[in-house]
């Protein structure tokens, strides 16, 4: 749920900045980026609120349950072999006996009535929700009869919303894209600082970016690159790790996919910090790998 919220937040921020990014001149005064309202953004906002309400409800239910059953329940929980078991997306834990548990495919995904929950896959096929995509992949990788076709063994979400015809990324848009992307990263970082959602290390880099013109774009670029390099934390951003900036933006920004592809210059499916800097048209000398420290503060935050 948290990750989904973060994705939506990302889309929201991008919507607010990139939608009018081309016409917006550099702001003289600090202003929260979320004040610009675009229709897309409203939609994302509504969805975000709905999620938050659902999450609060879920928490209340859990607490109620705990209060009712009390200490007896705690004893039972200790016996549950699913307690420490982590299952991948599309799978849930199932207890076999007191000591054994296994991950099995999600049996039924929640019915999604909201069309905005639909997703488009790498086969350019609309699925009802990301749960249904993960579930289908699970079926096809575990010999389940509900697997509709072999091709779904590697099915994954490419973007949110129904599959549609993607307008082409025009040459002049692409030419301007690195600048807008840099601007956007800087604004996202500033926004997170305003919301006090940056760790102290990130915050220091953000303040540097505000005061030192040389570091304005580079610090934001470094921060985002470190942030994207999640699991595995190997100093390279894989295609999979690009998902959080790609999937929510594809329908808003037609140049995001070709832009991100262009970052991987040697086509080894990994984007190094130098490659990232180059495609954002930043100076190589200014880019310093500050991720070690970032990773530490990030981990201690979580
Ligand atoms: C993907 O599907 C949509 C909707 O069916 C269609 O309009 C579009 O042309 C398709 N795109 C590709 C690349 O086939
Ligand atoms: C800005 O940052 C650069 C790179 O770290 C540094 O060399 C320069 O001295 C800084 N300038 C100011 C005014 O602090």
UniProtKB/TrEMBL annotation:
One Gene Ontology term of the molecular function aspect: collagen binding
Predominant cellular place of this UniProt entry's protein: secreted
Alphabetical keyword list: Calcium, Disulfide bond, Glycoprotein, Secreted, Signal
Matching Pfam families: SPARC_Ca_bdg (PF10591)
Compartmental location: Secreted
Signal peptide (residue range): 1-21
Gene3D superfamilies, per the entry: 3.30.60.30, EF-hand
Cellular component terms per the entry's GO annotation: extracellular space
PROSITE patterns the UniProt entry points to: EF_HAND_1, OSTEONECTIN_2
Domain of life the protein comes from: Eukaryota
Domain SPARC/Testican calcium-binding, residue spans: 166-279
Listed PANTHER family: BM-40, SPARC OSTEONECTIN
Protein name: SPARC/Testican calcium-binding domain-containing protein
